[in-house]
Amino acid sequence: MSAEDVTQLVLRERQSRDHGWYEEMATCFADDSIVQMSWFTGSGADFVRQTRAMAGRGDHAVHRLSPPAVRIDGDRALAELPLVIEWRINIDGVEAALASACRSPYRAQRGTDGLWRIARITSIYEKDTLVPVLPGTRLAVDPAGLAGYRRPTGSWPGT
């Protein structure tokens, strides 16, 4: 088995999420997998269920992926996937584009059936960008209103 198998596993999980292929997404996870994101911590199976529920509410993000770096040691692998999560939000009647740059380390394991599955995903958020969709539109955000949200590992301007 090669790093290509692990790369395809990671990319298949993200593609399945973005396209709403939840049954395919579920096959990517080991039974005892753990997923830790800013909005979710739990099993891979629960992550798939919560992702489907989010999409059902109209919350949809697109993941812009960069090639993952993969290291394999026997039946275990570590893949670090650089990505940007993009979605549209409404702030006081102004449509805005929010982009979160992050790194997602994926731990994968090869099962007794010879297939690689995700054992753990952790996302490390590095930078958020918020801009109005329509150039020239004023987007007013009170920095105090951001206090309850996770901070990326970088810093927000003016804080």
From TrEMBL:
<dbReference type="Pfam" id="PF13577">
    <property type="entry name" value="SnoaL_4"/>
</dbReference>
<dbReference type="InterPro" id="IPR032710">
    <property type="entry name" value="NTF2-like_dom_sf"/>
</dbReference>
<dbReference type="InterPro" id="IPR037401">
    <property type="entry name" value="SnoaL-like"/>
</dbReference>
<protein>
    <submittedName>
        <fullName>Nuclear transport factor 2 family protein</fullName>
    </submittedName>
</protein>
<feature type="domain" description="SnoaL-like">
    <location>
        <begin position="4"/>
        <end position="121"/>
    </location>
</feature>
